[in-house]
Write a structure and sequence with these properties.
mainly beta, 7-stranded mixed beta sheet, 4-stranded antiparallel beta sheet, about 50% strand, globular
Length: about 130
């Protein structure tokens, strides 16, 4: 069974940058659209970014557009989230999620569409 493992979280000052990684085990990584969600303390989990199986299409939440970039390296079974100009409101546990899909990404993705989840990595942005 495919497993997702996130890494790269940590403590950073406002205005700083972090790069999250999510590595998948198994040989079927290329058949998944990959996503990042986040959940702040006391809040519901929300969509952050998505990338299609081949990397040709992406989608971002309005709150991160222009600051975050999602990419993937199918040879390494890894998806990345580059986070720049971080704000205290970006503080959350960030989850990697996979959806079995060979379609282009059209808009924000829903939690209910995901087939696999990682355990999350904590990002804390201090003011």
């Amino acid at each position: 069974q495919v497993q997702l493992v996130e890494s790269g979280g940590g403590l950073v000052q406002a205005g700083g940058s972090l790069r999250l990684s999510c590595t998948a085990s198994g040989r079927t990584f290329i058949t998944y659209a990959m996503n990042w969600f986040r959940q702040a303390p006391g809040k519901e989990r929300e969509f952050v970014a998505a990338i299609s199986w081949g990397g040709s299409s992406t989608s971002y939440a309005d709150s991160v557009k222009g600051r975050f970039t999602i990419t993937r390296d199918n040879a390494k079974n890894t998806v990345y989230l580059q986070m720049n100009s971080l704000k205290p409101e970006d503080t959350a546990v960030y989850y990697c999620a996979a959806e079995t899909s060979l379609q282009n990404i059209r808009g924000p993705q829903s939690i209910g569409s995901m087939d696999l989840w990682g355990k999350g990595t904590l990002v804390t942005v201090s003011s």
